[in-house]
Amino acid sequence: MNAMLVCADCAVRDKALCGALSDGELAALNRIGRRRHLRRGETLIWAGEDNAVCANLLSGVMKLTAGTADGREQIVGLVYPADFVGRPWPGEAGVTVTALSDVELCTFPRAAFEAVLEDHVRMERLLLQRTFAALDEARNRMLALGRLSAGEKVAAFLLAMADRGSGCRATGFGPVTFDLPLTRGEMAEILGLTIETVSRQLGRLKAAGTIALPGARGVTIRDRAALEAAAGN
Amino acid sequence: MNAMLVCADCAVRDKALCGALSDGELAALNRIGRRRHLRRGETLIWAGEDNAVCANLLSGVMKLTAGTADGREQIVGLVYPADFVGRPWPGEAGVTVTALSDVELCTFPRAAFEAVLEDHVRMERLLLQRTFAALDEARNRMLALGRLSAGEKVAAFLLAMADRGSGCRATGFGPVTFDLPLTRGEMAEILGLTIETVSRQLGRLKAAGTIALPGARGVTIRDRAALEAAAGN
DNA sequence: CGAGTACTTGATCGTGATCAACGGGTGTGG
DNA sequence: CCACACCCGTTGATCACGATCAAGTACTCG
Protein backbone atom coordinates (compact mmCIF):
# COMPACT_ATOMS: atom_id res chain seq x y z
CA MET A 1 0.00 0.00 0.00
CA ASN A 2 1.44 3.38 -0.98
CA ALA A 3 2.19 5.41 2.10
CA MET A 4 0.83 8.69 0.82
CA LEU A 5 -2.35 7.07 -0.25
CA VAL A 6 -3.11 6.10 3.31
CA CYS A 7 -3.66 9.70 4.32
CA ALA A 8 -4.70 11.03 0.95
CA ASP A 9 -7.96 9.16 1.01
CA CYS A 10 -8.49 9.43 4.76
CA ALA A 11 -12.08 10.13 5.65
CA VAL A 12 -11.13 12.18 8.69
CA ARG A 13 -7.97 13.78 7.33
CA ASP A 14 -8.71 17.28 8.55
CA LYS A 15 -10.90 16.53 11.53
CA ALA A 16 -8.49 14.25 13.36
CA LEU A 17 -5.27 15.21 15.12
CA CYS A 18 -3.46 14.86 11.82
CA GLY A 19 -5.19 18.03 10.71
CA ALA A 20 -2.38 19.83 12.52
CA LEU A 21 0.15 18.53 10.03
CA SER A 22 1.00 19.73 6.55
CA ASP A 23 0.84 17.24 3.72
CA GLY A 24 4.60 16.97 3.93
CA GLU A 25 4.67 16.30 7.64
CA LEU A 26 2.15 13.55 7.25
CA ALA A 27 4.92 11.41 5.85
CA ALA A 28 6.15 10.77 9.40
CA LEU A 29 2.76 9.46 10.46
CA ASN A 30 2.32 7.58 7.23
CA ARG A 31 5.45 5.60 7.88
CA ILE A 32 4.22 4.31 11.23
CA GLY A 33 0.46 4.22 10.69
CA ARG A 34 -1.44 1.10 9.78
CA ARG A 35 -5.07 0.68 8.82
CA ARG A 36 -6.94 -1.88 10.81
CA HIS A 37 -10.47 -3.24 10.90
CA LEU A 38 -12.34 -4.53 13.91
CA ARG A 39 -15.70 -6.25 13.94
CA ARG A 40 -18.45 -5.39 16.34
CA GLY A 41 -17.49 -6.67 19.78
CA GLU A 42 -13.75 -6.92 19.15
CA THR A 43 -11.43 -5.11 21.55
CA LEU A 44 -8.49 -2.88 20.62
CA ILE A 45 -7.15 -2.13 24.09
CA TRP A 46 -7.66 -4.00 27.37
CA ALA A 47 -7.69 -2.12 30.67
CA GLY A 48 -4.66 -3.06 32.74
CA GLU A 49 -2.38 -3.85 29.83
CA ASP A 50 0.56 -1.64 28.97
CA ASN A 51 -0.14 1.07 26.44
CA ALA A 52 0.84 -0.40 23.11
CA VAL A 53 -1.12 1.48 20.46
CA CYS A 54 -2.65 4.83 19.77
CA ALA A 55 -5.23 5.23 17.04
CA ASN A 56 -7.57 7.53 15.20
CA LEU A 57 -11.00 6.15 14.54
CA LEU A 58 -11.91 6.42 10.86
CA SER A 59 -15.39 4.94 10.82
CA GLY A 60 -17.81 3.24 13.19
CA VAL A 61 -18.26 3.78 16.90
CA MET A 62 -16.34 2.38 19.87
CA LYS A 63 -16.90 2.33 23.60
CA LEU A 64 -14.60 2.88 26.57
CA THR A 65 -15.47 0.68 29.53
CA ALA A 66 -14.29 0.41 33.11
CA GLY A 67 -15.18 -2.57 35.25
CA THR A 68 -15.23 -3.71 38.85
CA ALA A 69 -13.38 -6.77 40.11
CA ASP A 70 -16.63 -8.74 40.22
CA GLY A 71 -17.58 -8.04 36.62
CA ARG A 72 -19.92 -5.06 36.72
CA GLU A 73 -19.20 -2.74 33.81
CA GLN A 74 -19.70 0.93 33.10
CA ILE A 75 -19.27 2.61 29.73
CA VAL A 76 -17.23 5.73 30.47
CA GLY A 77 -17.06 7.18 26.99
CA LEU A 78 -17.90 6.80 23.32
CA VAL A 79 -15.46 7.20 20.46
CA TYR A 80 -16.57 8.64 17.13
CA PRO A 81 -14.77 9.01 13.79
CA ALA A 82 -11.81 11.42 13.99
CA ASP A 83 -11.50 10.81 17.74
CA PHE A 84 -8.22 9.69 19.21
CA VAL A 85 -7.79 6.67 21.51
CA GLY A 86 -4.84 5.47 23.54
CA ARG A 87 -2.10 7.15 25.51
CA PRO A 88 1.15 8.35 23.98
CA TRP A 89 3.24 7.54 27.05
CA PRO A 90 4.17 4.34 28.84
CA GLY A 91 1.79 3.12 31.48
CA GLU A 92 -1.26 0.96 32.01
CA ALA A 93 -4.45 1.49 30.07
CA GLY A 94 -7.23 2.52 32.42
CA VAL A 95 -10.11 1.57 30.17
CA THR A 96 -11.01 -1.12 27.67
CA VAL A 97 -11.66 0.05 24.10
CA THR A 98 -14.16 -2.06 22.18
CA ALA A 99 -15.92 -1.73 18.84
CA LEU A 100 -19.68 -1.11 19.03
CA SER A 101 -20.01 -1.54 15.28
CA ASP A 102 -17.59 -2.71 12.64
CA VAL A 103 -14.87 -0.07 12.73
CA GLU A 104 -11.91 1.13 10.73
CA LEU A 105 -8.89 2.51 12.58
CA CYS A 106 -5.60 4.15 11.79
CA THR A 107 -3.26 2.70 14.43
CA PHE A 108 0.23 3.74 15.52
CA PRO A 109 2.70 1.91 17.73
CA ARG A 110 2.72 3.87 20.97
CA ALA A 111 6.42 4.67 21.08
CA ALA A 112 6.53 5.74 17.45
CA PHE A 113 3.52 8.00 17.96
CA GLU A 114 5.18 9.49 21.01
CA ALA A 115 8.19 10.37 18.87
CA VAL A 116 6.04 12.04 16.22
CA LEU A 117 4.22 14.02 18.89
CA GLU A 118 7.59 15.17 20.19
CA ASP A 119 8.36 16.82 16.87
CA HIS A 120 4.98 18.38 16.23
CA VAL A 121 3.95 20.80 18.90
CA ARG A 122 0.76 21.78 17.15
CA MET A 123 -0.42 18.20 17.20
CA GLU A 124 0.36 17.93 20.88
CA ARG A 125 -1.65 21.08 21.47
CA LEU A 126 -4.64 19.66 19.62
CA LEU A 127 -4.36 16.51 21.71
CA LEU A 128 -4.33 18.58 24.88
CA GLN A 129 -7.42 20.48 23.77
CA ARG A 130 -9.21 17.25 22.91
CA THR A 131 -8.27 15.81 26.26
CA PHE A 132 -9.69 18.84 28.05
CA ALA A 133 -12.88 18.39 26.05
CA ALA A 134 -13.02 14.72 26.98
CA LEU A 135 -12.57 15.67 30.61
CA ASP A 136 -15.46 18.12 30.43
CA GLU A 137 -17.62 15.46 28.88
CA ALA A 138 -16.64 12.91 31.51
CA ARG A 139 -17.52 15.37 34.25
CA ASN A 140 -20.88 16.07 32.71
CA ARG A 141 -21.56 12.39 32.67
CA MET A 142 -20.58 12.21 36.32
CA LEU A 143 -23.29 14.74 37.06
CA ALA A 144 -25.77 12.63 35.11
CA LEU A 145 -24.73 9.40 36.83
CA GLY A 146 -24.84 10.88 40.30
CA ARG A 147 -27.80 13.19 40.22
CA LEU A 148 -30.26 12.51 37.41
CA SER A 149 -33.26 10.21 37.71
CA ALA A 150 -33.64 7.32 35.28
CA GLY A 151 -36.07 9.29 33.15
CA GLU A 152 -33.78 12.30 33.01
CA LYS A 153 -30.80 10.13 32.12
CA VAL A 154 -32.57 8.54 29.17
CA ALA A 155 -33.98 11.82 27.89
CA ALA A 156 -30.64 13.60 28.18
CA PHE A 157 -28.92 10.71 26.46
CA LEU A 158 -31.31 10.79 23.53
CA LEU A 159 -30.78 14.52 23.12
CA ALA A 160 -27.02 14.06 23.15
CA MET A 161 -27.21 11.27 20.60
CA ALA A 162 -29.52 13.31 18.40
CA ASP A 163 -27.08 16.19 18.34
CA ARG A 164 -24.21 13.86 17.54
CA GLY A 165 -26.08 11.77 15.08
CA SER A 166 -27.72 14.41 13.01
CA GLY A 167 -24.59 16.51 12.87
CA CYS A 168 -25.51 19.33 15.19
CA ARG A 169 -28.23 20.61 12.95
CA ALA A 170 -29.81 23.71 14.41
CA THR A 171 -32.22 23.06 17.25
CA GLY A 172 -34.98 22.66 14.75
CA PHE A 173 -38.35 21.54 15.91
CA GLY A 174 -40.14 19.01 13.84
CA PRO A 175 -39.21 15.34 13.95
CA VAL A 176 -35.58 14.23 13.75
CA THR A 177 -34.79 10.57 13.19
CA PHE A 178 -31.52 8.76 13.77
CA ASP A 179 -30.19 5.32 14.63
CA LEU A 180 -28.60 4.50 17.94
CA PRO A 181 -25.23 2.77 17.61
CA LEU A 182 -26.03 0.96 20.86
CA THR A 183 -28.18 -1.86 22.16
CA ARG A 184 -30.47 -1.24 25.12
CA GLY A 185 -27.95 -3.07 27.26
CA GLU A 186 -25.21 -0.69 26.20
CA MET A 187 -27.40 2.32 26.87
CA ALA A 188 -27.92 0.92 30.34
CA GLU A 189 -24.15 0.55 30.76
CA ILE A 190 -23.66 4.19 29.85
CA LEU A 191 -26.41 5.52 32.07
CA GLY A 192 -25.75 3.40 35.14
CA LEU A 193 -29.13 1.71 34.85
CA THR A 194 -30.43 -1.75 33.97
CA ILE A 195 -31.68 -2.77 30.59
CA GLU A 196 -35.25 -3.08 31.88
CA THR A 197 -35.26 0.44 33.27
CA VAL A 198 -33.97 1.87 30.00
CA SER A 199 -36.64 -0.02 28.10
CA ARG A 200 -39.37 1.23 30.41
CA GLN A 201 -38.25 4.84 30.24
CA LEU A 202 -38.17 4.69 26.45
CA GLY A 203 -41.62 3.17 26.53
CA ARG A 204 -42.83 5.96 28.70
CA LEU A 205 -41.48 8.63 26.34
CA LYS A 206 -43.04 6.81 23.44
CA ALA A 207 -46.40 6.54 25.18
CA ALA A 208 -46.27 10.27 25.87
CA GLY A 209 -45.74 10.91 22.16
CA THR A 210 -42.39 12.56 22.82
CA ILE A 211 -40.49 10.06 20.71
CA ALA A 212 -41.16 7.20 18.32
CA LEU A 213 -39.11 4.02 18.08
CA PRO A 214 -39.06 2.89 14.44
CA GLY A 215 -37.27 -0.43 14.07
CA ALA A 216 -34.82 -1.91 16.51
CA ARG A 217 -32.33 0.95 16.67
CA GLY A 218 -34.23 3.92 15.30
CA VAL A 219 -35.35 6.90 17.34
CA THR A 220 -37.52 9.78 16.20
CA ILE A 221 -37.74 12.88 18.31
CA ARG A 222 -41.26 14.12 17.82
CA ASP A 223 -41.32 16.79 20.49
CA ARG A 224 -37.91 18.11 21.33
CA ALA A 225 -39.22 20.61 23.87
CA ALA A 226 -40.91 17.84 25.82
CA LEU A 227 -37.75 15.75 25.66
CA GLU A 228 -35.70 18.65 26.96
CA ALA A 229 -38.22 19.11 29.76
CA ALA A 230 -37.91 15.42 30.62
CA ALA A 231 -34.13 15.81 30.69
CA GLY A 232 -34.48 18.50 33.31
CA ASN A 233 -33.60 21.54 31.23
CA MET B 1 6.55 41.75 46.40
CA ASN B 2 9.80 40.59 44.81
CA ALA B 3 9.11 38.44 41.78
CA MET B 4 11.79 35.85 42.44
CA LEU B 5 10.66 35.42 45.98
CA VAL B 6 7.26 34.27 44.82
CA CYS B 7 8.65 31.06 43.38
CA ALA B 8 11.68 30.74 45.61
CA ASP B 9 9.58 30.02 48.66
CA CYS B 10 6.87 28.13 46.80
CA ALA B 11 5.68 25.09 48.70
CA VAL B 12 4.98 23.13 45.53
CA ARG B 13 7.86 24.47 43.40
CA ASP B 14 8.92 21.12 41.98
CA LYS B 15 5.66 19.21 42.18
CA ALA B 16 3.55 21.62 40.16
CA LEU B 17 3.71 22.29 36.44
CA CYS B 18 6.40 24.87 37.11
CA GLY B 19 8.73 21.99 37.87
CA ALA B 20 9.25 21.81 34.12
CA LEU B 21 10.97 25.18 34.15
CA SER B 22 14.49 26.14 35.09
CA ASP B 23 14.99 28.83 37.71
CA GLY B 24 15.67 31.26 34.92
CA GLU B 25 12.56 30.42 32.97
CA LEU B 26 10.45 30.91 36.04
CA ALA B 27 10.91 34.63 35.54
CA ALA B 28 8.23 34.54 32.85
CA LEU B 29 5.71 32.98 35.21
CA ASN B 30 6.82 35.18 38.05
CA ARG B 31 5.94 38.26 36.09
CA ILE B 32 2.36 37.19 35.54
CA GLY B 33 1.69 35.12 38.67
CA ARG B 34 -0.10 36.46 41.70
CA ARG B 35 -0.61 34.85 45.07
CA ARG B 36 -4.15 34.78 46.22
CA HIS B 37 -5.99 33.51 49.28
CA LEU B 38 -9.53 32.17 49.40
CA ARG B 39 -11.50 31.29 52.48
CA ARG B 40 -13.46 28.12 52.85
CA GLY B 41 -16.53 28.34 50.64
CA GLU B 42 -15.24 31.07 48.32
CA THR B 43 -15.27 30.36 44.61
CA LEU B 44 -12.41 30.96 42.17
CA ILE B 45 -14.18 30.01 38.93
CA TRP B 46 -17.88 29.79 38.11
CA ALA B 47 -19.16 27.29 35.58
CA GLY B 48 -20.44 29.06 32.50
CA GLU B 49 -18.17 32.08 32.77
CA ASP B 50 -15.39 32.67 30.29
CA ASN B 51 -12.03 31.24 31.27
CA ALA B 52 -10.23 34.09 32.97
CA VAL B 53 -7.65 32.52 35.26
CA CYS B 54 -5.46 29.49 35.58
CA ALA B 55 -3.89 28.60 38.88
CA ASN B 56 -1.74 26.22 40.83
CA LEU B 57 -3.01 25.30 44.24
CA LEU B 58 -0.38 25.89 46.91
CA SER B 59 -2.20 24.79 50.04
CA GLY B 60 -5.63 23.61 51.11
CA VAL B 61 -8.16 21.63 49.12
CA MET B 62 -10.70 22.73 46.50
CA LYS B 63 -13.65 21.06 44.82
CA LEU B 64 -14.88 21.03 41.23
CA THR B 65 -18.66 20.95 40.97
CA ALA B 66 -21.17 20.59 38.18
CA GLY B 67 -24.83 21.36 38.70
CA THR B 68 -28.21 20.82 37.11
CA ALA B 69 -30.54 23.64 36.13
CA ASP B 70 -32.69 22.97 39.18
CA GLY B 71 -29.86 23.19 41.68
CA ARG B 72 -28.71 19.62 42.26
CA GLU B 73 -24.93 19.48 42.55
CA GLN B 74 -22.28 16.87 42.01
CA ILE B 75 -18.63 17.18 42.99
CA VAL B 76 -16.70 16.01 39.93
CA GLY B 77 -13.18 16.35 41.25
CA LEU B 78 -10.95 17.41 44.10
CA VAL B 79 -7.94 19.68 43.79
CA TYR B 80 -4.88 19.19 45.99
CA PRO B 81 -1.71 21.26 46.43
CA ALA B 82 0.44 21.32 43.26
CA ASP B 83 -2.63 20.58 41.13
CA PHE B 84 -3.54 22.87 38.25
CA VAL B 85 -6.97 24.41 37.71
CA GLY B 86 -8.44 26.32 34.82
CA ARG B 87 -8.11 26.15 31.05
CA PRO B 88 -5.35 27.87 29.10
CA TRP B 89 -7.57 28.62 26.11
CA PRO B 90 -10.62 30.79 25.54
CA GLY B 91 -13.97 29.21 26.24
CA GLU B 92 -16.50 28.63 28.96
CA ALA B 93 -15.62 27.00 32.25
CA GLY B 94 -17.47 23.70 32.60
CA VAL B 95 -17.15 23.41 36.36
CA THR B 96 -17.22 25.64 39.38
CA VAL B 97 -14.03 25.69 41.47
CA THR B 98 -14.59 26.33 45.18
CA ALA B 99 -12.39 26.22 48.26
CA LEU B 100 -13.15 23.40 50.69
CA SER B 101 -10.73 24.84 53.22
CA ASP B 102 -8.86 28.12 53.36
CA VAL B 103 -6.55 27.91 50.36
CA GLU B 104 -3.54 29.62 48.88
CA LEU B 105 -3.25 29.85 45.10
CA CYS B 106 -0.77 31.03 42.53
CA THR B 107 -3.00 32.53 39.82
CA PHE B 108 -2.23 33.58 36.25
CA PRO B 109 -4.33 35.59 33.82
CA ARG B 110 -5.50 33.07 31.26
CA ALA B 111 -4.10 34.75 28.16
CA ALA B 112 -0.73 35.37 29.78
CA PHE B 113 -0.51 31.76 30.89
CA GLU B 114 -1.39 30.62 27.40
CA ALA B 115 1.53 32.65 26.08
CA VAL B 116 3.95 31.11 28.57
CA LEU B 117 2.72 27.64 27.70
CA GLU B 118 3.38 28.44 24.06
CA ASP B 119 7.06 28.98 24.79
CA HIS B 120 7.58 26.04 27.09
CA VAL B 121 6.84 22.74 25.46
CA ARG B 122 7.90 20.73 28.46
CA MET B 123 5.32 22.46 30.60
CA GLU B 124 2.65 21.80 28.02
CA ARG B 125 3.61 18.14 28.03
CA LEU B 126 3.30 17.97 31.80
CA LEU B 127 -0.10 19.58 31.56
CA LEU B 128 -1.18 17.00 29.00
CA GLN B 129 0.00 14.17 31.22
CA ARG B 130 -1.84 15.62 34.19
CA THR B 131 -4.96 16.01 32.11
CA PHE B 132 -4.79 12.37 31.06
CA ALA B 133 -4.44 11.43 34.70
CA ALA B 134 -7.44 13.58 35.60
CA LEU B 135 -9.42 11.87 32.85
CA ASP B 136 -8.54 8.44 34.21
CA GLU B 137 -9.62 9.54 37.64
CA ALA B 138 -12.88 10.97 36.33
CA ARG B 139 -13.63 7.72 34.54
CA ASN B 140 -12.96 5.71 37.64
CA ARG B 141 -15.37 7.89 39.50
CA MET B 142 -17.93 7.29 36.76
CA LEU B 143 -17.64 3.59 37.44
CA ALA B 144 -18.15 4.24 41.13
CA LEU B 145 -21.14 6.51 40.56
CA GLY B 146 -22.83 4.15 38.14
CA ARG B 147 -22.12 0.73 39.54
CA LEU B 148 -21.11 0.71 43.20
CA SER B 149 -23.55 0.39 46.10
CA ALA B 150 -23.64 3.04 48.80
CA GLY B 151 -21.48 0.91 51.10
CA GLU B 152 -18.92 0.28 48.39
CA LYS B 153 -18.80 3.95 47.49
CA VAL B 154 -18.09 5.03 51.04
CA ALA B 155 -15.48 2.34 51.64
CA ALA B 156 -13.70 3.04 48.36
CA PHE B 157 -13.76 6.75 49.08
CA LEU B 158 -12.18 6.28 52.51
CA LEU B 159 -9.43 4.16 50.99
CA ALA B 160 -8.74 6.78 48.35
CA MET B 161 -8.63 9.53 50.94
CA ALA B 162 -6.37 7.49 53.18
CA ASP B 163 -3.89 7.01 50.34
CA ARG B 164 -3.97 10.70 49.50
CA GLY B 165 -3.98 11.92 53.06
CA SER B 166 -1.24 9.81 54.51
CA GLY B 167 1.04 10.37 51.55
CA CYS B 168 0.84 6.97 49.90
CA ARG B 169 2.57 5.25 52.75
CA ALA B 170 2.99 1.58 52.00
CA THR B 171 -0.17 -0.47 52.33
CA GLY B 172 0.70 -1.01 55.96
CA PHE B 173 -1.76 -2.77 58.17
CA GLY B 174 -2.31 -1.38 61.60
CA PRO B 175 -4.40 1.71 62.17
CA VAL B 176 -3.97 4.80 59.99
CA THR B 177 -5.60 8.05 61.02
CA PHE B 178 -6.29 11.11 58.93
CA ASP B 179 -8.68 14.05 58.67
CA LEU B 180 -11.22 14.38 55.92
CA PRO B 181 -11.15 17.77 54.21
CA LEU B 182 -14.88 17.37 53.62
CA THR B 183 -18.15 17.56 55.47
CA ARG B 184 -20.58 14.64 55.26
CA GLY B 185 -22.61 16.69 52.86
CA GLU B 186 -19.62 17.11 50.58
CA MET B 187 -18.85 13.41 50.75
CA ALA B 188 -22.42 12.82 49.67
CA GLU B 189 -21.95 15.26 46.78
CA ILE B 190 -18.91 13.32 45.61
CA LEU B 191 -20.46 9.91 45.93
CA GLY B 192 -23.85 10.67 44.45
CA LEU B 193 -25.60 9.89 47.74
CA THR B 194 -27.43 11.81 50.43
CA ILE B 195 -25.89 13.00 53.66
CA GLU B 196 -27.95 10.53 55.66
CA THR B 197 -26.82 7.56 53.64
CA VAL B 198 -23.18 8.55 54.01
CA SER B 199 -23.63 8.92 57.74
CA ARG B 200 -25.30 5.53 58.02
CA GLN B 201 -22.66 3.76 55.99
CA LEU B 202 -19.92 5.29 58.12
CA GLY B 203 -21.84 4.21 61.20
CA ARG B 204 -22.05 0.70 59.87
CA LEU B 205 -18.30 0.52 59.23
CA LYS B 206 -17.69 1.91 62.69
CA ALA B 207 -20.03 -0.61 64.29
CA ALA B 208 -18.19 -3.39 62.47
CA GLY B 209 -14.90 -2.18 63.95
CA THR B 210 -13.49 -1.51 60.50
CA ILE B 211 -12.99 2.18 61.18
CA ALA B 212 -13.16 4.64 64.03
CA LEU B 213 -14.40 8.22 63.80
CA PRO B 214 -12.41 10.36 66.24
CA GLY B 215 -13.72 13.92 66.28
CA ALA B 216 -15.81 15.55 63.58
CA ARG B 217 -13.46 15.05 60.65
CA GLY B 218 -11.12 12.29 61.80
CA VAL B 219 -11.08 8.77 60.41
CA THR B 220 -9.05 5.83 61.65
CA ILE B 221 -8.75 2.76 59.50
CA ARG B 222 -8.55 -0.10 61.94
CA ASP B 223 -8.89 -2.97 59.51
CA ARG B 224 -7.79 -2.10 56.01
CA ALA B 225 -8.47 -5.58 54.65
CA ALA B 226 -12.08 -5.39 55.81
CA LEU B 227 -12.40 -1.91 54.29
CA GLU B 228 -11.05 -3.17 50.99
CA ALA B 229 -13.49 -6.04 51.09
CA ALA B 230 -16.32 -3.58 51.70
CA ALA B 231 -15.12 -1.56 48.72
CA GLY B 232 -15.47 -4.61 46.54
CA ASN B 233 -11.82 -5.45 45.97
C1' DC C 1 -24.93 30.69 77.46
C1' DG C 2 -27.61 30.66 73.34
C1' DA C 3 -27.75 30.10 68.33
C1' DG C 4 -26.43 27.90 64.45
C1' DT C 5 -24.37 24.20 61.95
C1' DA C 6 -22.90 19.57 61.26
C1' DC C 7 -23.94 15.01 62.27
C1' DT C 8 -26.63 10.95 63.78
C1' DT C 9 -30.53 8.10 64.14
C1' DG C 10 -35.25 6.55 63.25
C1' DA C 11 -39.55 5.76 60.36
C1' DT C 12 -41.52 5.58 55.97
C1' DC C 13 -41.74 5.93 50.97
C1' DG C 14 -40.57 5.43 46.15
C1' DT C 15 -37.49 4.53 42.46
C1' DG C 16 -35.12 1.45 40.12
C1' DA C 17 -33.15 -3.46 40.58
C1' DT C 18 -34.26 -8.06 40.30
C1' DC C 19 -36.70 -12.15 38.90
C1' DA C 20 -39.55 -14.05 35.42
C1' DA C 21 -42.13 -14.75 31.24
C1' DC C 22 -42.94 -13.68 26.61
C1' DG C 23 -42.62 -11.60 21.73
C1' DG C 24 -40.13 -10.60 17.55
C1' DG C 25 -36.32 -10.65 14.42
C1' DT C 26 -32.31 -13.12 12.46
C1' DG C 27 -29.26 -16.53 11.20
C1' DT C 28 -28.31 -21.57 10.92
C1' DG C 29 -28.88 -26.14 9.80
C1' DG C 30 -31.85 -29.92 8.63
C1' DC D 1 -38.31 -23.72 3.09
C1' DC D 2 -39.23 -24.30 7.53
C1' DA D 3 -37.84 -25.40 12.42
C1' DC D 4 -35.16 -24.08 15.82
C1' DA D 5 -32.16 -21.46 18.67
C1' DC D 6 -30.41 -17.32 20.08
C1' DC D 7 -30.35 -12.59 21.01
C1' DC D 8 -32.63 -8.46 21.86
C1' DG D 9 -36.27 -6.05 23.61
C1' DT D 10 -40.67 -5.52 26.19
C1' DT D 11 -43.67 -6.07 30.00
C1' DG D 12 -45.20 -7.59 34.57
C1' DA D 13 -44.63 -8.61 39.70
C1' DT D 14 -42.03 -8.06 43.63
C1' DC D 15 -38.23 -6.51 46.46
C1' DA D 16 -34.69 -3.70 48.50
C1' DC D 17 -31.71 0.07 48.60
C1' DG D 18 -31.27 4.55 49.27
C1' DA D 19 -34.12 8.99 49.41
C1' DT D 20 -37.01 11.59 52.06
C1' DC D 21 -39.14 13.34 56.14
C1' DA D 22 -38.49 14.10 60.93
C1' DA D 23 -36.34 14.42 65.55
C1' DG D 24 -32.82 14.78 68.31
C1' DT D 25 -27.67 15.22 69.63
C1' DA D 26 -22.92 17.20 69.60
C1' DC D 27 -19.62 21.05 68.29
C1' DT D 28 -18.40 25.85 67.39
C1' DC D 29 -18.63 30.33 67.61
C1' DG D 30 -20.75 34.69 68.79
TrEMBL record, chains A, B:
Residues 148-225 form the HTH crp-type domain. InterPro entries: cNMP-bd_dom (IPR000595), cNMP-bd_dom_sf (IPR018490), Env_Response_Regulators (IPR050397), HTH_CRP (IPR012318), RmlC-like_jellyroll (IPR014710), Tscrpt_reg_HTH_Crp-type_CS (IPR018335), WH-like_DNA-bd_sf (IPR036388), WH_DNA-bd_sf (IPR036390). CDD domains: CAP_ED (cd00038), HTH_CRP (cd00092). SUPFAM superfamilies: cAMP-binding domain-like, Winged helix' DNA-binding domain. Keywords: DNA-binding, Transcription, Transcription regulation. PANTHER family: CRP FAMILY TRANSCRIPTIONAL REGULATORY PROTEIN, FUMARATE AND NITRATE REDUCTION REGULATORY PROTEIN. This is Crp/Fnr family transcriptional regulator. It comes from Sphingomonas rustica.
